[in-house]
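Protocol step 4 of 6: structure prediction from sequence.
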Amino acid sequence: MAAEVARSAAARRRIVGETRWINLNLRADGVLTYAPVTGSETVGFDMSSGRAGFTWEIPEDTEISGPMALGLFLETERAEDVYLFVGVQKLRAGRVVPFEGSYGYGFDRVTTGWLKVSLRKPDPDGSFPQGPLHAYDEVWPLEEGEIVPVDIALLPSATFFRKGEQLRLVVQGRWFSTRNPLLDQLPAAYERGPRGICILHCGGEHEARLRIPVIPRYDSAQNTLS
């Protein structure tokens, strides 16, 4: 038994060490895809009430374990900043699968990330491809019509997806729930963001993508990864 446990632990360490980092490209029609998106298109949302969603249908049983990173290109209308909140949801048969969150909140997501776009300056000493970091030492306001790159780190998570389930990326300008003592993550709260329109650019020279960590499957009989 001890030897089997040791072999399983060693296999797990090997699997994690061979994590595959996969880029899912954002299409303006709401799809996440492996394929390059050649044409540049846009999708916009009201920062106070709207959102943009992008969905990937899982092609095979897949374990996603580790931090994710979102790379966007965006501009604003009638605003010098965007308070971006991004989340990844798991869907089964078209319905969101809820997760247990902080403070006993029962409607959480797979993972979440957030950033004030005016604080997007990268930390040159701390950023890495799987999880960008920011310096937070300068404010870079947006000018209307200016398209800027924005990298957002999403918190580490570990979720197993069955073939046919869906991963959905949500991008919006407000927190995901309201301040409701019965249905919210109280006492946590987030500063209300500015009003305006956020426009996401996808494809072509604006290679918006979600970077995900996929754990290779381990075949114990063959002692191989696939």
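Step 5 (inspection) to follow. The mean pLDDT is 86.
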